[in-house]
Design brief:
CATH class of the largest domain: Alpha Beta
Main location: Golgi
Mean pLDDT: 85
Strand content: 15-25%
Subcellular location: Golgi apparatus membrane
Pfam family, one: Glyco_transf_61
Pathway: Glycan metabolism
Membrane topology: Single-pass type II membrane protein
Largest sheet: 10 strands, mixed
Radius of gyration: 26 Å
Length: 478
């Protein structure tokens, strides 16, 4: 019996080995000869690029960093900042201050760490130190929701959570409400990062306090606080403390250091306190800036029956080269057209009301599209996607958040004939023929240089008008 089974086993093994060998050969052949010139980037590459997404400002590089009302992408390092600490997670259910060990610090996502404690809490702000009763180990943390990006985190001040032993400083000011520590270091000052790294996580983390919370802001820039003061008043009844420069020892019954992050420009209601969503965040913005218009329509908000088109203009890279012709074509179609170019000097309330009056908003990928947070429900956002295989980038930043914000999203993907890159490179140059190879070889810096910094747009007016007609058809009826 054994002699008859063994040849059969050998025969089956040979067949299986042959099949596996064939699959390996086919995989190698496909990878070498069947790849398309505009294939999607490899998953590890896309993950690397996603970790490097930074919204570029449209401000001249010659402006001095640290100038009042500056909105440069990267700010000068705050005193006491350092390298991003290596983080070990603990469970969010542990009670800090209620037992031995380190304070309760846990990663709410790969982008954000949140530390919580109750009891004897003493904050010595100008020493970047928080003393906590009932713990026996130190912990270091940075209260900014971009932990995956060491470039950003290098500009965020680090706080040390220490045991409140007999050497801890005595309280000089006592508070009866919880404290919440956050930072406007990192890339804040760029509108996109203001919202995705700071304001949305701040709302998510503090709305449940119903105003009874004291904000302690690290890296405070007065112009930045003034810009969003009306929004902060929706979350706290108390003036924000400049904690880095405060010489008092503030004592609190509870403290939270660092905001919870769910996703870019978004909130996951299933994981948020009270199951709030980004629509609730938009509602808070509407209250803050006095925005009266709740919904868009084909009849517009002007009372003359015309839907309003807002063109977001840019003055440096990714400019519309035929912006005036675009406005004329849209007006001929029956739109009430407005062109606006927001910058660091733009009054937030005024611009918010302008965006809220729009039924359709169009702009090239960039921080200015962040103003979609002010669009009324049912409005249409048209993101003009520059040439260069940037669909994954434009999806993460604006396409994906739009749906949750109750905004109808449309892409306008630039073809090569509409791009100024055609005037800068020969037709057989890799920048034009194989964008993903550029991405893969040079990473974020190569992508930014080739496709974001050096590209302008001349819209095909026929395509543009067809896109506007589709947007008009998607608007709610008057």
């Amino acid at each position: 019996m054994r002699s008859r089974q063994e040849p059969r086993r050998v025969s089956n093994g040979v067949i299986i080995a042959a099949m596996l060998l064939s699959l390996c050969v086919l995989s190698i052949v496909k990878a070498r000869y069947c790849s398309t010139p505009f294939a999607k980037p490899d998953d590890p590459l896309q993950e690397q690029m996603n970790s490097s997404i930074r919204m570029e400002t449209d401000e001249p590089a010659s402006k001095a960093a640290g100038e009042q009302e500056e909105e440069q992408e990267e700010e000068s390092p705050a005193t006491g900042g350092g390298a991003v600490p290596e983080v070990s997670t603990t469970t969010p259910t542990a009670v800090a201050g209620g037992g031995k060990g380190k304070p309760t610090c846990f990663m709410t996502s790969k982008r954000s760490e949140r530390c919580e404690a109750r009891g004897d809490i003493r904050v010595e702000g100008n020493a970047s130190t928080i003393y906590i009763g009932g713990i026996n180990k130190e912990w270091k943390t940075k209260p900014y929701a971009r932990y995956h990006d060491p470039v950003a985190m290098a500009y965020v001040r680090e706080f040390t959570l220490k045991p409140a032993d007999e050497f801890a400083p005595a309280c000089t000011k006592n508070h009866s409400v919880p404290a919440f520590v956050f930072s406007n270091g990192g890339f804040s000052g760029n509108l996109y990062h203001d919202y995705t790294d700071v304001l949305v996580p701040l709302f998510l983390s503090t709305h449940q306090f119903k105003g009874e919370v004291q904000f302690l802001l690290s890296g405070l820039k007065p112009w930045w606080v003034n810009k969003f003061t009306l929004f902060f008043r929706q979350l706290t009844k108390y003036d924000i403390l400049d904690i880095d420069n405060d010489r008092d020892v503030h004592c609190f019954p509870r403290i939270v250091v660092g905001a919870t992050f769910h996703k870019d420009m978004g909130v996951d209601p299933a994981r948020s306190p009270g199951h709030v969503s980004v629509v609730d965040f938009k509602r808070a913005l509407r209250r803050a800036f006095g925005l009266e218009r709740a919904a868009a329509s084909r009849g517009g908000a002007t009372g003359n029956g015309k839907p309003r088109l807002l063109i977001i203009s840019r003055k440096n890279s990714r400019r519309f080269l035929n912006e005036r012709e675009m406005a004329q074509a849209a007006a001929a179609m029956g739109f009430d057209v407005r062109i606006a170019e927001p910058d660091q000097h733009t009054d937030m309330s005024t611009f918010a009301r302008l965006v809220n009056s729009a039924d359709v908003m169009i702009g090239v990928h960039g921080a200015g599209l962040t103003n979609m947070v002010f669009l009324p429900r049912g409005a249409v956002l048209i993101q003009v996607v520059p040439f260069g295989g940037l669909e994954w980038l434009t999806s993460v930043t604006f396409k994906n958040p739009a749906k949750d914000m109750e905004v109808t999203y449309m892409d306008y993907n630039i073809n090569l004939q509409e791009s100024s890159l055609l005037d800068q490179y020969p037709r057989n140059h890799q920048v034009l023929t194989d964008p993903y190879a550029v991405h893969k070889q040079g990473g974020w810096d190569a992508l930014k240089t080739a496709y974001l910094d050096k590209q302008n747009i001349r819209m095909d007016l026929d395509r543009f008008k067809k896109t506007l007609q589709e947007a008009l058809d998607r608007l709610p009826p008057a």
